[in-house]
Structure formats: structure tokens, C-alpha cells
Amino acid sequence: MNRNEKVLMRRDHTYTGMDARTPVIDAQDLRKTFGSFVAVNDISFSVFPGEVFGFLGPNGAGKTTTMKMIQCVSPKSGGSLKVFGREAGIYQRSIKKRLGVVPQETNLDTEFTCFENLLVYSRYFGIPKQEATGRIEELLGFVQLEEKRDVLIERLSGGMKRRLVLARALINNPDLLVLDEPTIGLDPQARHLIWEKLKVLQAQGNTIVFTTHYLEEAERLCNRLVIMDEGKILVEGSPAGLISGHVGSDIVEAEHTPEVIACIENMGVSYEVFGDMVQIFTDNPREVAKNLFDTCNPGHVFARRGSLEDVFLKLTGRALKD
Amino acid sequence: MAQSVYIPRLTRGALTVWRRNWDVFFKTYQVNFLPPLVEPILYLLAIGYGLGMFVGEIDGVPYVEFIAPAMVAISIMNSAFFECTYSSFVRMYYQKTFDAMIATPLALDEVIAGELLWGATRSFIYSSVMLVVLIGFGVVDLPLSLIILPFSFLAGLLFAGIAMCFTAITPGIDSLNYPSFLFITPMLLFSGTFFPLDVLPGGLQIFARGFLPLTQVVTVTRSLTLSTFSPYFLYSIGWISILTVLFFFVSIHLMKRRLIV
Questions:
Q1: Sequence spans of domains, chain A
Q2: Do A116 and B23 touch (CB under 8 A)?
Q3: What are the angstrom distances between the C-alpha of B66 and each of A157, A195, B146?
């Protein structure tokens, strides 16, 4: 059996009386205010066992605040939030016992080695030392840090630290993994390695919730996602469903000239202008491109697959956030 | 079920927080044990014997024996106070250690309780090491002085609680200089440490006896190292016990108000 195929999280929900129809997280009109500022504005969503569920949105959209409420460290201001079927504001300890958390900021104990970090953390869960030791060796293997076992945190690269935080989040065999910007600030190699690990966990049928503003990350990992902006959920769906529903399967881009615009207006297709470029959302890129070339001297024309980025920009606008 | 915000949620989990700080302390024990070993030797030589030459005796006690218990008391105060101000603030604000801890079944109440217990433990460790040096110099009475060991934990917990209140309300790490210089430093000098309270003006004496925690702690340590007791000893023990419990709960409450948003 390959080391990476070991089961790192609990998948058997039967002992808690949960089945595939019982949501792991159930939020109804969830609200969070800081003074007069509404950070999370009456959002509703459900996450089911075995799903990888993403929260996508620009800075300040309310993603991290939502994660903190799920983690039972920040009390809600209104609505209801149930995790494992229990009210998050009341059953904090029993919920937190079954959560694995990767915070946005890497908060490892810099005075300790990799092994010691995980051991100290295992004590917070009350895991007996012998059991913890075996599990730590297994987890260090999973995140490919066996060779760094006795190395101090300050000597690790950013990607290694992130992987160690992931291993730390798995120390208690969590039923639900919550990650806030898991690959923030990492180089492409390090990001791919984290994705690979999350894919393994996903393949094992684990329930994972994460936030990101990397669209590629959401597209690769999520079964389902929501796009948030200014505290509200704008849309919810699968990556493919959102793309075909909001921008069409393909996008044709042409130079922004009056002739081109006139042409497109004649064709009666939906389009948007971004600076010196026109984007035409379509399920039939060949025909659109051919029409453009035949009738309106468009200069450069590109046809490409629609992406989550297109959906995101269409919904949240191109204005710079904060 | 939902609990009152005033009653802390405390379990043995607090000890795992305490244990984390203990482990860090002993990872760097070489530097950590230097101050309590070196400090008393320097003070005993310079102030106790040097300055003591001119002072002679206070209330029939050689000056060096008069200040020895004050040094223990100051050490109890400083180790807990600075641990639960600057060090706790670094863990809370810069290292995000508290955030990592409350992502586990630990409640914030237990994290703070663990920090307070650790501050008290530091007082215990430092004053114990110092006591060994003082015993070596033969300036404290035995075996009564050994009662300082358990007492240092209690008094340390008092200063830890006071310190944690400042940590809970400080806007940033630099502002912690205010309690350090406006509260701790004057207390270090005007609590009957290096000269008896009697020489202070009447109003200040009453203030020191009524409101300065270090005055109470010096009274207790001096009674023990000199084997001289007065009813005032019991007053000090009572004062310390009540205020320790009070600040323990108030500091946890203030920290929750700061961090649970």
C-alpha cells in the first residue's frame, strides 16, 4: 500500500449518525457584523460529506470571517450555523475536536522542530503520546517532510511550513478540514505539491472546505463552490456549471474598435468591453470568429475556453478591491 | 450548553498550554537560568555588602539580610510580570500562538489560564534559583525560608494576572512600557524593598500598604527569611490570596473580550 493512500481523515460518518444527506456544515442566513460593518451578510449554504467546497472571492469578501465562524472561534451575529448537525455557537469544544484547521497565517511554534510542533499540538487534542508519535511519523511522510523531522521551523521554506501546517491540521483524524488560503504566497512548485496532497485527501472521500482567491485552485479542487463579494454569496455551483451558466463554454476576444462593436451588435451575442479588448461569451466560438473575420476586420482574434476567472470577473467587476 | 461569559471554561487543557511554554523554556535553558544566578550575586555584593557598609543595620538586621528577601520578592514580580506582558503579547499578537491553540478543542479561557500558570511557574523557578544563591551566602534563615518556594507560585500568579490585564488592553507592544515604568519600577523602589516603609510620608505608607502588591510580597518573604512575624504577615497573605483570585478571573475575561470577536 502506498504511503500516500493511507487514510488520514475519518470517512466513516455512520458512528455519528450522519449520512450523505446530512450536511456537514449547514448555514442559514448566517450573518456577522463588526459594529456597523456587515462582514457576512445573511449567507446560506450547505456542505455535504465527501465534498470539496470552495469559497472564492476578492479580499474583504467575508471568506475568512465565515471560516472563523465554522471553526467556532468567532461567534455569529445572526442566522444559524450547524457543523456536524450541532449549533456552532454552543458545542464549540465537541465540534473543534473533529475539525482540522489550516489558518491563513502560518502560526507554527518557531522554537520547535517539525516533530515537536506536531507533538505539542497533539496534546491540545488530548491524544496520548504513543499514539501521537506514530501518527506524526505517518503525517510527516504524507507531506514529504520526513527528512526535516528534527529541523527547526525557521530553517524551512515557505512551502515546507505550509505542508507542516497541513500535517498539523490532520493530527486528530478530522472529519472536516477547513483551509483558509492554503497556498497563499507560495511559488508554483510549492502550490502544486499542496494541491497534490489535497487531491489525495479528496480522493479518499474527505470533506474539505477552503477559501482562495486563486481561481485556478478553485477550478482544480472544488466539487462545488460559492463566489462571495462584499459579504454576500453571488453564485453557487460546480466550476463547470458556473462557467457554462455565466460565460458560456468559450470566449472569443477581439480588439475594441467601433466596427467590431457594431458587428457584434448585429450578431446579437452577449459581450463585454474590458479596456482595449472585447470579450464575446459563446458556446460556438468557431462561428463567432468566422463571422468576425468575414464581416468586420477585427484585427487580432483569440478563442479560448471559458474559465472560472471569467465568471469571477464578470460577477465581481474589474475594479481593484481594497 | 451556553455558559455565562463571566465563568471561564477550564479543564486540564490549560496544562497543555502551560506544558508548551515549559518545553520552550527548557529548550533555551542556558540563557534562561543566567539572570536568576547572576543577578543576586551582583546585588548582594554591590548593594548588600558595598552600600551596606554605610547603612549598617536596619531594625537590628544587617543591611544585606534586609534586602535579600526583597530581591526574592522583586524576582517573583519581574519574572511573572514580564512573562505575561511582553512574552504573552508576542505569542498572542506576533506569533499567533493563541490562534493555533484555539483551533483545537482548547477554549481561550484555558489558553489564558495556561499562560497565567506558566507566569507563576517562572516566578517559582527564578525565585528558587535565587534562594539557592542566598542560602549559599548565608543571608536567609533555614528552614523557614523554604516556604518561599510554594509562596512564590501564589505571588507569581498574582503578578501574572495583573500583567495579563495590561496585555489584554494594550493597543501595541510599545504601550506595555507604561505599566513597566509607571507601575513596576516605582513599586520596585517604594515597597519597603531597599529601605523600610516607615521613612516614607504617612500618606505614601498607607498607599503602599493598601494598594501595592509588592509591599505585601516583601512583607511575607522578609518575615520568612528573618523568622520574624507580625499580624501584618497574615494581612499580606490574605491580601495576596484574594487579589490573585480576582485578577485571575478578570484577566481571562478581558482577554476574551479582546480576542473573541
A1: 3-237, 248-305
A2: yes
A3: 55, 67, 17
- Say how many C-beta atoms besides its own lie within 10 A of residue A42's C-beta: 16
Chain A CB contacts of B3 under 8 Å are: none
pLDDT value of residue A11? 54
**Between A235 and A262, residue with greater pLDDT:** A235
Q: Which pLDDT value is given to residue A18? A: 52
Cβ distance B89 to B101 under 8 Å? no
CA dist list (Å): A250 to A220, A261, A273, A289: 18, 19, 16, 11
CA distance B156 to B77: 6
Does residue B133 contact residue B33 with C-beta atoms inside 8 Å?
no
Domain-located, residue B7 = no
Interface of A with B in 48-77 (CB under 8 A): 71, 73-75
When the pLDDT of each residue in chain B is averaged and rounded to a whole number, the result is 93
Contact B27 A92 (CB under 8 A): no
Provide the number of structural domains found in chain B: 1
Domain ranges, residue B38: 13-177+191-259
Q: ipTM surpassing 0.95, yes or no?
A: no
Per-residue model confidence as pLDDT tens digits over A225-245 = 999 999 999 999 999 999 888
Amino acid code (one letter) for A291: N
Least CB-CB distance to B104: which of A94, A116, A124?
A124
Residue corresponding to grid cell 528534527: A150
Is residue B3, in this structure, part of any structural domain at all? no
Q: What does CATH list as the number for A3-237?
A: 3.40.50.300
How far is it, in rounded angstroms, from Cα A41 to Cα B111? 31
Mean pLDDT of A113-117: 97
Of the candidate CATH numbers 3.10.290.10, 3.40.50.410, 3.30.70.260, 3.40.50.2300, the domain formed by A248-305 belongs to 3.30.70.260
Q: Establish if A90 touches chain B: CB-CB under 8 angstroms.
A: yes
CA distances from B73 to A25, B126, B222 (A): 53, 10, 9
pLDDT beyond 90 at A50: yes
Asked whether residue B159 is domain-assigned, the answer is yes
For A313-322, B100-109, B228-237, which range has the lowest pLDDT when averaged over its residues?
Answer: A313-322
- Secondary structure (3-state) at B117: helix
- Please say if the pLDDT value at position A320 is more than 60: no
pLDDT grade for B256, boundaries at 50, 70 and 90: very high
